[in-house]
Design a protein that fits this description.
This protein is an alpha/beta fold and 475 residues long. It has three domains: 112 residues, Rossmann fold, CATH 3.40.50; 258 residues, tm_1862 like domain (pyruvate-formate lyase- activating enzyme, Alpha-Beta Horseshoe); 78 residues, OB fold (Dihydrolipoamide Acetyltransferase, E2P). Helix content is 29%, strand content 20%. Helix 12 packs parallel to helix 13. The structure holds S-adenosyl-L-homocysteine (SAH) and iron/sulfur cluster (SF4). The site of iron/sulfur cluster has 10 residues, from helix 6. S-adenosyl-L-homocysteine (SAH) binds next to strand 13.
Length: 475
C-alpha cells in the first residue's frame, strides 16, 4: 500500500511539472513516505531523515516532508527532534501534496495536515506512470478490524470503499494505457463494498463461510461481485491478471474460493492463481489474544478446499513471532501450520508493541533474543518448504510478466552475453532469465522454461517470445 501511495505522490508531483532525480543532493523536494506498522519501520524513516539533515541550512535547501502512516502517527512531534522537517502529512492528505509543497515553498514552516477525511464515501482515480504493465488500484481504505497488535485502524481511519462502477471505469482507463495486471488494494478486501448499495444487482448477493454470513450485508456491494464484474467488462478484455491484497481469514468467503475455479466451472478466468491470506499464528490461543476471531482449523479447511479447486495456486501469508505470551509450543504450532499449508512465501515479523493498541497493554514478555531466534527459525523452515515447492517447477514452462531488469545479474556468470530480466508468474513466483536480443522486455508476457530453483526464485530459459508482440514496450 505504501508503494502505491508513493507512486501516487510521484504522479501528482510529475503532473505539476516536477521531475524525479536519483541524486538526493539535487532535489528541491524530499518526501519520506514511512510505514508505522512496526517500530523498526518508524526508526528507519526517522534515521533516514537524520542522514539527510545536512542538505538543509536554516535559510536554504530542499522542502522536506514526512508523510504516510508515520506522518499520521507523528502529528508534528518530529519538529522538536528534526526542525529541518517542513511539514507532516497523513495518508488522507496525499492528494494535497502539491499544495502542501507550495505552502512550504512560500515559507510556511512546521505545519501538519493529518486530518482524516470525514466523508463516508471514497472516490479516487488511479495514477500510474506511462507505459506500465502493472498497476496498484486502491479499492478501499482504512480498517475496522482492530487486531489487538495493529496500528493501521489508527493511522488509516475507518473502512470506506469505492463503488464497483468507479473501479471498473478506473481499471478500463488503465487497460487502455497498457496496464495488463492490476493488484486491488485494501487492508481487508473482504470488507470491500460495506455501505455501498448494490443497486446494479451484482451477484453473488451475499457472502458466507463455515462461520456463517460474512463481509458486507446483503443488499450491499461485495468483493466477489467486483471480481465477476471485472471479468465480464468488455473494456477489460486485455487485462491478463487480477491480484488482490490483503484479506482477513475471518471473512474469507466460500464465494471467493469459488472465483478461483476453472472458468468453465464458474471461476473468474483472469484471477491470478495466487492468494495472500495473513494468518499471523498457528496457535488458537495466540490468535484469540490477537483479536483475529477465527480458528486455525477453519483456515486450514478453507485452504484445503481452495487447493482442491486450484491445485497450482501459490499461497503466501504474514506471520508475527513473539506476540505477548507466545510459548515455544505456540510457536511450534506456527511451524506446523506452515508445513501443512505449504506456502510459497511468507512475510514474518517480530512483534513490536504499537502505541494506542490493545496489545500494547500486555506485557511484552518474549525476550528480544527469543524473538530473533524464532524469526530466524520460521524463515529457515519456510525456505526449506519453498525450496521443495520451487524445485517441483523445474522443467515446466511458465508464463511470466516481465517487470524489469534483475537487480542481481549473477545468472550471467557462465554466459557473459545478454541481460538478466525478472518477472513473475500468475502464482506470484519470481522468475529470472537471460535475454541476448537487447530489446526492452518490460511489460511483456513471455514463456520461460524453468531450469533452476532456489527457495526464493526460479531461473529459466526464454523459449519463445510469441507473446512479445502482444506486450507493450517502454523503450
Ligand atoms: N491489513 C493487512 C495487514 C497490514 S499490516 C492484513 O490484515 O493482512 C501487515 C502485517 O504487519 C500484518 O499482517 C502483521 O503480520 C504485521 N504487523 C502488524 N502489526 C504488527 C506489530 N505490532 N508487530 C509486528 N508485526 C506486525
Ligand atoms: Fe491491522 Fe488487522 Fe486491520 Fe490488517 S486486518 S490492518 S492486521 S487491524
Amino acid at each position: 500500500m505504501n508503494v502505491a501511495d508513493t507512486e501516487r505522490m510521484e504522479a501528482l508531483m510529475l503532473e505539476r511539472g516536477g521531475a524525479l532525480t536519483e541524486q538526493i543532493e539535487e532535489a528541491d523536494v524530499i518526501v519520506i513516505n514511512g510505514c508505522s506498522v512496526r517500530e523498526k519501520a518508524v526508526h528507519k524513516a526517522v534515521s533516514y531523515l537524520g542522514e539527510h539533515k545536512g542538505l538543509k541550512t536554516r535559510y536554504e535547501g530542499p522542502v522536506i516532508a514526512l508523510g504516510g502512516c508515520v506522518g499520521q502517527l507523528d502529528q508534528g512531534e518530529i519538529f522538536k527532534r528534526a526542525p529541518y522537517v517542513d511539514f507532516v502529512f497523513g495518508p488522507d492528505a496525499i492528494d494535497q501534496l502539491p499544495e502542501l509543497v507550495d505552502r512550504a515553498k512560500r515559507g510556511e514552516r512546521h505545519f501538519v495536515q493529518a486530518e482524516f477525511d470525514k466523508t463516508l464515501s471514497y472516490s479516487t482515480q488511479t495514477k500510474v506512470k506511462k507505459n506500465k504493465a502493472l498497476a496498484f488500484v486502491n479499492i478501499m481504505k482504512g480498517c475496522d478490524k482492530y487486531c489487538t497488535y495493529c496500528i493501521v485502524p489508527f493511522t488509516r481511519g475507518r473502512e470506506k470503499s469505492r463503488t464497483i462502477q468507479e473501479v471498473l471505469d478506473d481499471v478500463a482507463a488503465l487497460v487502455s494505457q497498457g496496464v495488463r495486471e492490476v493488484t486491488l488494494l485494501g487492508q481487508n478486501v473482504n470488507s470491500f463494498g460495506k455501505g455501498n448499495p448494490n443497486t446494479a444487482g451484482y451477484e453473488p448477493a451475499e457472502l458466507s463461510n463455515p462461520i456463517g454470513k460474512v463481509g458486507p450485508r446483503p443488499g450491499e456491494e461485495n468483493f466477489v461481485q467486483l471480481l465477476y464484474a471485472m471479468n465480464r467488462d468488455p473494456r477489460l478484455k486485455q487485462l491478463k491478471r487480477i491480484r488482490f491484497t490483503s484479506s482477513h481469514p475471518l471473512d474469507f468467503s466460500d464465494q471467493l474460493i469459488g472465483a478461483y475455479a476453472d472458468p468453465k466451472e464458474g471461476g473468474v478466468d483472469n484471477l491470478a492463481k495466487h492468494l495472500h491470506l495473513p494468518v499471523q499464528s498457528g496457535s488458537n490461543a495466540i490468535l484469540q489474544k490477537m483479536g483475529r476471531h477465527h480458528k486455525v482449523e477453519t483456515y486450514v479447511e478453507q485452504m484445503k478446499v481452495l487447493k482442491s479447486i486450484s491445485p497450482d495456486i501459490g499461497l503466501s501469508t504474514d506471520i508475527i513471532v513473539g506476540f505477548p505470551g507466545e510459548t515455544e509450543e505456540d510457536f511450534e504450532a506456527t511451524l506446523k501450520l506452515l508445513t501443512e499449508i505449504e506456502y510459497d512465501n511468507i512475510y514474518a515479523f517480530s512483534y513490536s508493541p504499537r502505541p494506542g493498541t490493545r496489545a500494547e497493554k500486555l506485557v511484552d514478555d518474549v525476550s528480544k533474543k527469543v524473538k530473533s531466534e524464532r524469526l530466524a527459525r520460521v524463515m529457515k523452515h519456510q525456505l526449506d518448504i519453498a525450496e521443495g515447492r520451487y524445485a517441483e517447477r523445474i522443467g515446466r514452462t511458465m508464463e511470466v510478466l516481465v517487470v524489469g531488469l534483475a537487480r542481481n545479474d549473477g545468472m550471467l556468470a557462465n554466459s557473459k552475453l545478454g541481460r538478466v530480466w525478472t518477472g513473475h508468474t500468475t502464482c506470484n513466483r519470481v522468475v529470472n532469465f537471460i535475454d541476448q536480443s537487447g530489446r526492452n522486455l518490460e511489460g511483456s508476457f513471455l514463456n520461460i522454461k524453468i531450469t533452476n530453483a532456489s527457495g526464493l526464485s526460479l531461473q529459466g530459459d526464454l523459449i519463445h517470445d510469441a507473446g512479445f508482440a502482444e506486450g507493450i514496450s517502454v523503450a
